[in-house]
Here is the input.
Amino acid sequence: MAENTRIALFPLNLVLFPGMILPLHIFEPRYKEMIGECLEQDKEFGVVFLEEGHLHTVGCTAKISKVLKRYEDGRMDILTKGIKRFRLDELNHDRKFLQGEVSDLTDVPESQILISDERISEACGYLNRIFEISKQAHDEVQPGDLSPDALTFMIATAGGYTLQERQTLLQGIDTAERLEIILSMKSKVINRMIADQRLREMINLNGNLTN
Here is the structure.
């Protein structure tokens, strides 16, 4: 994606990261048109976090990897994947759906050099612990399996972060700083995930809180 590129925007109450898998149900006429055009022209669209009417200015492009189902009325179930981050420079209202003039947002390359092997190893252990708590089927991640920036994005995607925390992690351009923020929150996020998992288990027990 070159600088000052115009792309279709999909404001959602979520934060998309590069590499993140995102299923979507498309039902509004404007988004049927938008997704249909993206499919026909093999184009990406931008996902931006819409928070209580406020549209954040850093988002992530999504590529449609599969159409899971088409309905007679034009609705679609699609599977998308986050590709790359962008900064929203200007909104455009020429179409039924929102568009934006965007520019690439990438991490400063030098910031990854500052990350020690010990911090990478700690981050991998943290991610594996997240997979364990959330019972996500995933191969154990080892140092060297992912680039440092991809590792931070995967932790932010898989972990129990709030939308606001995820947006903060999405918009930074210093990999080392992002990793330090993630690791500083490790205990809080793990405790949050354990509590959430316990709550889900109690709900599955039909509210029998004595078990």
